[in-house]
């Protein structure tokens, strides 16, 4: 039997816009670091690369793009970071990631474009690293919209977000953790922290890498 190598954990936050992913992922990284875990916060889209800048321009409605093309660009923005992510995990760094392939699929499929269904949307993601834990911040769209600020970027409308939430329900797998995101910041954090600690402990003990959609 091949011996398992210690590595960092890939912990992913997913959910509709304004559900608290950025607050919680930032807080989780701080908490992990202060307990001695080597952790970094990553996010997708990664708007710093040249592909990321094209995505940013699209999200800010400064440019138009074909729906299939922008979908592939979001996926390519993960592929261009794949080796760097794997290298970090191999070095023992835990990556807390704010959105990944599940957002990619849930958002494009929510547009209802003929041909761009869930299966089509999943295909360019196949082979990317599968997270060790998914923290799905569950929040009704009405509650997320009430947090203020829907409408700043493309996709931030209640109708689209409702379709996105329905798609997350279809993509959810039984190993995901569904967190009630309507609680206080500290309550949500405590739930996330427990799952993260467990994932970090498993990966330190040695865990194989899994791929989407294993
Ligand atoms: N989004 C994000 C996609 O449409 N596809 C993707 O693959 C990813 C990662 O971009 N409304 C959408 C979801 C968000 C928007 O993300 C920007 P954020 O976390 O608001 O910066
Ligand atoms: Mg947003």
UniProtKB/TrEMBL annotation:
GO terms for biological process: dTDP biosynthetic process; dTTP biosynthetic process; dUDP biosynthetic process. Residues 13-190 form the Thymidylate kinase-like domain. Pfam families: Thymidylate_kin (PF02223). Its EC number is 2.7.4.9. Pathway: Pyrimidine metabolism; dTTP biosynthesis. Keywords: ATP-binding, Kinase, Nucleotide biosynthesis, Nucleotide-binding, Transferase. GO terms for molecular function: ATP binding; dTMP kinase activity; nucleoside diphosphate kinase activity. It is an enzyme of class 2 (transferase). It comes from the Eukaryota. The keyword Signal does not apply. CDD domains: TMPK (cd01672). GO terms for cellular component: cytosol; mitochondrion; nucleus. Transmembrane segments: none annotated. SUPFAM superfamilies: P-loop containing nucleoside triphosphate hydrolases. Belongs to the thymidylate kinase family. This is Thymidylate kinase.
């Amino acid at each position: 039997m091949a011996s398992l190598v210690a590595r960092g954990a890939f912990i992913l936050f997913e959910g509709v816009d304004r559900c608290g992913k950025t607050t919680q992922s930032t807080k989780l990284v701080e908490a992990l670091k202060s307990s001695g875990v080597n952790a970094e916060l990553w996010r997708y889209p990664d708007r710093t690369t040249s592909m990321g800048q094209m995505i940013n321009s699209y999200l800010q409605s400064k440019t138009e793009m074909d729906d299939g093309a922008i979908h592939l660009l979001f996926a390519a923005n993960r592929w261009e970071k794949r080796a760097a992510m794997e290298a970090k995990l191999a070095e023992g760094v835990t990556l807390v990631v704010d959105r990944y392939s599940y957002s990619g699929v849930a958002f494009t499929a929510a547009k209802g474009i003929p041909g761009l269904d869930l299966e089509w949307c999943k295909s360019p993601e196949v082979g990317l690293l599968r997270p060790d834990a998914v923290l799905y911040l569950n929040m009704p769209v009405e509650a997320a919209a009430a947090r203020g600020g829907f409408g700043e970027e493309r996709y931030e409308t209640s109708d689209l977000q409702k379709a996105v939430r329905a798609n997350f329900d279809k993509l959810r797998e039984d190993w995901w953790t569904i967190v009630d995101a309507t609680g206080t910041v500290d309550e949500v954090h405590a739930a996330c922290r427990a799952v993260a600690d467990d994932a970090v402990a498993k990966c330190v003990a040695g865990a194989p890498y899994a791929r989407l959609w294993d």
